[in-house]
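Structure first, sequence second, as always.
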């Protein structure tokens, strides 16, 4: 379980912007992991990734806030424990929540804090980075916006995804590649148009977020031609327009400040409850 190789310092940057470059096929050995904080009312957290059963080789990502999604990092196949604690907490204290990841060679995973704070869950999402059929792309949605209710996604006039519940990830669906307009339709809010350019052989995740009552959508390219894309996202507010060049993508990764004393206390109370 040595060489955990989780250099996730990007989550601590104020704002990073980089052109997405896929990991070459020759380097696609091992498994790939990224971390996400997608619980809108949960304070910032520190996330620890450890080989199962030992603290040796653990990596800590500090100050992860709502909407933060790390780039993929390569890890050795095996079993890992992922734990969340209040930002600034002693890493020896009990985590608020934790999950176990059984990482398989050649697979990719997103471990995300999902749902509201009162029912916070740390979910292991299987990211399907396999090559879509010729001329096609693959897409799913992660609903991290409680105001949205269940989401539906249409590509031009065709239904793509239906009933994507808050705090959950929809199954992947295969869609024609090329330029299109996605309609993101929440149950309890007005629909929004999202121009995209889906590359043939690309795999995409649409994140629907909510900040201060305002919904936004972020489209991430997870893989291109069965090679993981380390980072790439374009975010647009509902009612706005996205960059049409989403095939390349730019990482928008905002660093969250350490949680204040009141928020940390709230998380500690939840741990005790």
């Amino acid at each position: 379980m040595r060489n955990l190789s989780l250099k996730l310092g990007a989550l601590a940057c104020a704002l990073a912007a980089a052109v997405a470059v896929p990991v070459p096929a020759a380097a696609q050995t091992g498994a790939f992991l990224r971390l996400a904080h997608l619980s809108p009312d949960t304070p910032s957290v520190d996330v620890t990734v450890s080989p199962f059963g030992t603290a040796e080789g653990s990596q800590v990502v500090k100050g992860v806030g709502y909407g933060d999604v790390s780039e993929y990092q390569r890890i050795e196949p095996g079993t890992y424990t992922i734990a969340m604690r209040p930002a600034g907490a002693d890493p020896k204290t009990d985590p608020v929540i934790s999950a176990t990841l059984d990482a398989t060679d050649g697979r990719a995973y997103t471990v995300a804090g999902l749902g509201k704070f009162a029912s916070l869950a740390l979910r292991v999402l299987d990211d399907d980075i396999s090559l879509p059929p010729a001329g096609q792309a693959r897409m799913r949605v992660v609903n991290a916006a409680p105001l949205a209710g269940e989401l539906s996604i249409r590509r031009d006039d065709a239904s793509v995804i239906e009933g994507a519940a808050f705090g959950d990830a929809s199954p992947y669906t295969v869609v024609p590649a090329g330029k299109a307009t996605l309609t993101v339709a929440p149950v309890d809010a007005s629909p929004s148009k999202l121009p995209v350019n889906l590359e043939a052989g690309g795999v995409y995740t649409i994140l629907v977020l909510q900040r201060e009552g305002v919904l936004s959508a972020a489209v991430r390219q997870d893989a291109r031609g069965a090679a993981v894309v380390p980072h790439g996202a374009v975010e647009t507010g509902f009612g706005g327009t996205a960059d049409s060049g989403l095939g390349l993508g730019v990482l928008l990764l905002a660093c969250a400040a350490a949680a204040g004393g009141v928020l940390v206390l709230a998380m500690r109370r939840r741990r005790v409850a």
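Margin note: The longest strand covers residues 214-224.
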